[in-house]
Amino acid sequence: MARIxxxxxxxxxxxxxxxxxxxxxxxxxxxxxxxxxxxxGMTLVDIGAGTGAFAAAFSDWFDLSVxxxxxxxxxxxxxxxxxxxxxxxxxxxxxxLPDASADAAWLSLVIHHIPDLGVAARExxxxxxxxAPVLIRQGFPGRLDRVELVxxxxxxxxxxxxxxxxxxxxTAFAAAGFHQDALEQVRETYPTSLADxxxxxxxxxxxxxxxxxxxEDEFLRGKExxxxxVRHAEDTANPEPRSNWLDLxxxx
Length: 252
Ligand SMILES: C[S@@+](CC[C@H](N)C(=O)[O-])C[C@H]1O[C@@H](n2cnc3c(N)ncnc32)[C@H](O)[C@@H]1O
Fold this sequence. Notes:
about 250 residues; alpha/beta; seven-stranded mixed β-sheet; binds S-adenosylmethionine; 12 helices
């Protein structure tokens, strides 16, 4: 069971406010390129693909075949259908793929939803070819200093504290034969302003697992912090673009 239900309302909210616009992903594009070393004709499995933003980006950027595996029908419905992206029902623990059929796995903001990481790691080992990388995009506990949401809503770190750590993840994957290849922080940027973000806060709260766990008081205090920052930004000639840093953990 995922930590929240990805029903139709959540899927629509996720699509509306949680996808990082493509222009803000250039540093992810380069980081993934370095570790994936993409070649035409490769197959990447996007596990917990959600609304398909990364599946679409990978096929456009690198000319890959992408298998977008996603358990929620409502999230799958939001994935843009193209010849290069095949959409499949499934979970990390039961992937609808033959043995040794994929050249890479991508898991973005998914590992905290997986009920048994050890089972998932073995399943990922089964479907990947030898030496293929597992690329994990995640805000790991204790590594949230530059996570935008935590800046405005610091109590969101409480939920993240219950998620698998880097060490938990590496240990689960080591038991399936993977080792840690790299760990770095990657920046993404947003073209929208802080005022836009404030305007989306209620929708965001619905679409984000860590925001759902805030109390009403914590949520209102965060909005007030944002409101003050919006006023300050209005007095500044060129406010910094909004940015967020997440971990990229690579296992092979
Ligand atoms: C926060 S969303 C991330 C979506 C997408 N990867 C992205 O970064 O935009 C988490 C996704 O994981 C999916 N999920 C939940 N449990 C899962 C599991 N056991 N295996 C694979 N995916 C799962 C959810 O349905 C949801 O679409």
